[in-house]
Description:
The structure holds 3 protein chains of 3 kinds. By secondary structure, chain A is mainly alpha-helical. Chain A has helices spanning 3-38, 45-62, 65-88, 96-118, 144-166, 168-178, 180-185, 190-214, 225-238, 243-261, 263-267, 285-299; strands at residues 123-124, 134-137, 140-143, 218-219. In chain A, a hairpin with a 2-residue loop joins strand 2 (134-137) and strand 3 (140-143). In chain A, helix 2 (45-62) packs antiparallel against helix 3 (65-88), helix 5 (144-166) crosses helix 6 and helix 10 crosses helix 12 (285-299). The termini of chain A are far apart. The model of chain A has no long low-confidence stretch (mean pLDDT 87). Chain B is mainly α. Chain B is 68% helix and 3% strand. Chain B has helices at residues 6-28, 36-61, 69-84, 87-93, 107-115, 117-146, 151-170, 175-178, 205-224, 227-237, 239-244, 249-275, 285-298, 303-320, 323-326, 342-346, 351-366, 377-390, 397-402; strands at residues 184-185, 195-197, 200-202, 277-278, 336-337, 340-341. A two-stranded antiparallel ribbon of chain B has the order 1-4. In chain B, strands 2-3 form a two-stranded antiparallel ribbon. In chain B, strand 2 and strand 3 form a beta hairpin. In chain B, helix 2 packs antiparallel against helix 14. Classes of the chains: A mainly alpha, B mainly alpha, C alpha/beta. At the A-B interface, helix 4, helix 9 and helix 12 of A face helix 7, helix 13 and helix 17 of B.
Amino acid sequence: MGAYDLFRLFFPYILSGISIGGQYALIAIGYSMVYSILRLINFAHGDVFMVGGLFMVFAAATFPLWVAIPLVVFLIVLLGFTIERVAYKPLRTAPRMSVMISAIGVSYLLQNLALYFTGGLNRMYPAFPWISDTISVFGVSTRRVTVITPFLVVALVFALVWLINNTKVGIAMRAAAKDFDTAQLMGIKINSVISTTFIIGSFLAAIGSILFFTNFPAVFPAAGAMPGLKAFVAAVFGGIGSIPGAVIGGLLIGIVETVIRGADITLGPTGLGLFNRSLDIAAFSDAFTFVLLVIVLVFRPTGLFGDKPTDKV
Amino acid sequence: MKKLSVGNSISILVLIIFFVLTIVLEQFIAPTDRMNMLLVCLRQGSIFALLAVAMNLLNGFTGLFSLGHAGFMLIGATTYALFSMPLAERSIVFTWFSDSYVIRISFPEVLGNLLGGPGMIIGMLISIILAGLVTAAFAFLVGLPVLRMRSDYLAIATLGFAEIIRAIIMWQGLGPVTNAGNPLRSFTRTADLNVTIGGQTFGLITFTLAFLSAVCIFIIFLLVTSSYGRAFKAIREDEIAAEAMGINLFKHKQLSFCISSFFVGVGGALLAIFMGTVAPLQFRAAMTYEFLLIVVLGGIGSITGSIVGAMLFVFASMWWLRGLDSGTFLGLDRITIFGVNLGERVFVSGFRMVVFSVIIMCIVLFFRRGLCGDKELPYYVNKLRELIARKSKPKPEAGGADA
Amino acid sequence: MPDNVLRVDDLTMQFGGVVAANNVCLEVNKSEIVALIGPNGAGKTTAFNCITGVYEPTNGRVSLNGEVIAESFPQGKMKDLYKGENRGKYTQSVKLTPDRITYRGISRTFQNVRLFKALTVFENVMIAKHMRAKQNVFSATFRLNTKEEKRMREESMALLEEQKLDHLKDHIASSLPYGLQRRLEVARALATSPSLLLLDEPAAGMNPQETQEMAEFIHEIRDRYGLTILLIEHHMGLVMQISERIYVLDFGKMIAQGTPDEIRADQRVIDAYLGVAEDAAN
């Protein structure tokens, strides 16, 4: 089997892996930023992403796309902001576990709301002209969104990094992430910093949701849970608080996940022929993410680019 | 023998009354009766209570924020099903693995053939305990890497392990052992728990499930109030100080983790009996969240709270709020707001869970200590007695103490 | 058999490039009260944390009653980063977790009181008894060894009575006034039946009257329980009054040692420390 055949065999998976990974990265940034400031795993973030998908289903049915897309992004940003104000802000001084429980409660509420409004039925995600078109890349047919995603992610990440490094609110965010209490003493309006963080996170999740669901058959209430968890793992893998880390973590998880999903085909009897019957390796594509998480947490608890935490005695 | 305090003796009395009621009620309520829902809720509520208390042992008493509940329940339920399914049923249940299935022993069947009716019960108990042991063994392995992590990483890692466990159980490669995610069924039926004496059948389903759960909960209660329980609480309060007082952190965390998982496994087995089928797809993170919310509802660090929380959760979501899904609820369905009739348009499938999650959110936000805080039943009994003794002014708090 | 209870040899603790304790040597003999003093950030608590196993020293050795409880040498990244002395002198790696060290007989209190806040006074003491309890989780849960549990209760009660905390037995630890919390922390440390007690600033935040009481209290527990005591303290009055010998740390280095009178007269100490302390006292 020549190099070209190998390429033909694996390229579709790597291509879609990069695309999914980019979408994970967009969600991961939201987790990472919130965690670095509040030390909170925002369990509801994945569900916000799912709600983004549902909003689009309903919005696209009533409005033209040029209205629907900005409207959905706006609503999701509003949702993220509201969740923080209602469910997390009152618990600012409570133990971290309470806030985490509140996040889980919000996640539960959003899923139940979604279940109610969809009537438990899977909703078809609308097809966007141009973005959803099928194109051919090196002989692999895919949707245009797959190719657009990596570029869009890179552009958004550059914009975000610029924002964090050069604007006043960005500096405030970094200060709050380094030392929450001192930042407050220095006159930083911590609540508006936190709100901004949630707004940015939700904005990226909304974009991620449009990209993700375009390539996904349907939206359903639990659709956000798995991508959410994976994105969090991506954030941990890259080092919580690090934006490049979240992107690299997201890409890695996306690629490996799709490659594993395709392993039965690429390595099995129809591919390289390493084994002659199906081993059902694909069953582990989700679990692999968590294996990765455990390995990272055991051997490098701060992730690839994270700071070392210190406990004072 | 130490004399029991009044609070303790009344608490014991309450429990005895509860068990007598479960037996008596079951004889009088026909399965077709509307009130049969009461029995069903009591059964499920008892099992949920055990599962919630087991989670509380870990999350509330030891302060380990673990989210692996659903995965461990699945191990328990699967183990139970595999070791209690009659041999004749296996080739049907293992549709895709009908000639290659591995586990070919059924404890209730073997002992039932040997000793008759009681043998079957012993066989069931053996399967239940085995379910607990297998779960605890898995927990031990999971605990090795996970228990050294910081609090929130522990949460996400255990959540991850629950997914890994589910993936393994659903893997085709293990199909001959686990049936690869296809539902396991036809094992113990709840009707098997009834006892027939002289042609007369006595319904003991509710009693058996509630009693088994209660025994487990009582053991956890004993553990929590023992020297080890205090050590667990010390770890929750301050790990560094606990270690400086000679408590081996890892050993005690591992102990708490394995014991809790043992009872989660037992609870999973009981749930399997209750449900009649084990479908791995049901054991997702959302299930863990539900138990976490029950624990919070009842009060983190209160066994009584977890029991009350579990009962309320089951009764509310299965029974009392049912009307919210089917269009009739306390007459509210006749109200029409802005031309929208609540009964027809709002109270449709799914609304119950929305209302329910809103209630839970309110508790999380405004009653952070839950219903019982970290106090137990005897405390509330004593409190109630004080109130009655003072009598001078009737208190509204008495209602809270009942819960 | 050496007559020193605690012996610290060439202890160096380096965090990244920062040397927090540099080549610290000290000995504490049986039944002595020894003080470790020095300006803030001199490395006193770091030394305590190395002795009790919270930190693993970068280089050096700690022994208790002649047995090594901690020994280390620069490893891994530290090989290149290490700035201290005595490289190559220690070749063993002995690492006991804090609970093992407590089991060997060193107990401690903390600079910022670390009680089990939500638990009762009695439970706080009982937890310290857990380590030496002769029961496993099974016998404890099923109450198979009620004698042992009873013994633990009685001993804890006796300890609380001696510390005059028995009437507060069922109070929640965090509800106690600060002075009593400190006393409870000492009682809890005593409950582990230590041979060596480490007190980290026992009189911090106390007024002169309370400080005086603390001085008497330390003397009293030393005599009553046959303890050896090593303490960190900033109150010079207390230190000079109760300690038999004093070690002075500055910037991680041991700059002086001796009796209170010798330390008072030592020019290096006056330069490094006492001037500052007098200012602070005024």
